[in-house]
Amino acid sequence: MEIIVADLAQSHGLDMVEQRIQAGDVSLLVNNAGFQTYMPFVDLSIDRAQEEVAVQVTAVMRLSHAALPAMIARGEGAIINVSSLLCFSGSLKSPFMPKRSVYAATKAFITMFSELLAAELQGKGILVQALCPAVVRTEFHDIDGKPVLRPNVPVMEPGDVVNASLAGLRQGDTICIPALEQVGKLSAVGDANRALFDAGRGAELAPRYR
Ligand SMILES: NC(=O)c1ccc[n+]([C@@H]2O[C@H](COP(=O)([O-])OP(=O)(O)OC[C@H]3O[C@@H](n4cnc5c(N)ncnc54)[C@H](OP(=O)(O)O)[C@@H]3O)[C@@H](O)[C@H]2O)c1
Q: Is residue 187 part of a domain?
């Protein structure tokens, strides 16, 4: 096993990992690094927000880009990008949900990036998955070393998330939501997006904007 210690929010850390991946022997890339910044956007330090974008957007994009040429040449490989169920939470207004504008937006990037990349790579033997768990029992929720979770929130064990992701990869799931049994709910999102795209493509202003 080879371990590289790197801060993916810093360009020298990301460069180091990127160069290692460019050696071309990675068959499974898991972009897992991430952290939450649950707070009102105006209270979030802009440096921390920038780090979040660096780790959860820039690093995911650059490390995928570094891994793909060799995977394409071999005709096999897989990329798992750890997103979050919160990538679908833009329309959720619940006061019990955390303030998450930057966190959820980075996860929306990951999910759309993965979905479009998977489509681009179809037929090349490479699987791309956006893994979208809800709440998982990890140090992600710790503040000052203690877990901070609302009571009664369903919490999944990390091993179950891993098993779902690998099962999803075998089934060719581009979006894996570990607790989702009714897959029709996910295809309904795709159907709604296509319907919105079709309805929003006109050359004329909608009457309500005139
Ligand atoms: N736990 C949840 O409820 C939940 C739900 C949905 C999605 N997720 C996602 O799952 C992924 C893994 O998080 P987790 O739940 O396992 O949380 P975690 O226990 O806090 O682990 C986060 C991991 O990301 C690494 N990391 C954070 N910032 C980094 C940086 N700047 N450079 C390199 N590595 C960095 C950490 O490394 P160090 O240990 O060295 O700091 C750690 O290995 C994240 O992308 C998170 O957004 C988590």
A: no
pLDDT band at 150 (very low <50, low <70, confident <90, very high): confident
- CATH assignment at residue 170: 3.40.50.720
Taking a C-beta distance cutoff of 8 angstroms, is the pair 77, 126 a contact?
yes
Residue 185 has a pLDDT of 98
β-pairing verdict for 126-131 and 77-82: parallel
164 lies in some domain: yes
Q: Residue 169 belongs to what domain range?
A: 11-182
Establish if 188 belongs to a structural domain.
no
Residue 146 has pLDDT above 90, yes or no: no
Ligand 1: centre distance to CA 195 (Å): 35
The band of 141, judged by pLDDT with boundaries at 50, 70 and 90, is very high
Instruction: Tell me the CA–centroid distance for residue 33 and ligand 1, in Å.
Output: 5
Our answer to whether residue 38 is catalytic in this structure is no
Q: What is the spatial distance between Cα 159 and Cα 135, in angstroms, rounded to a whole number? A: 13
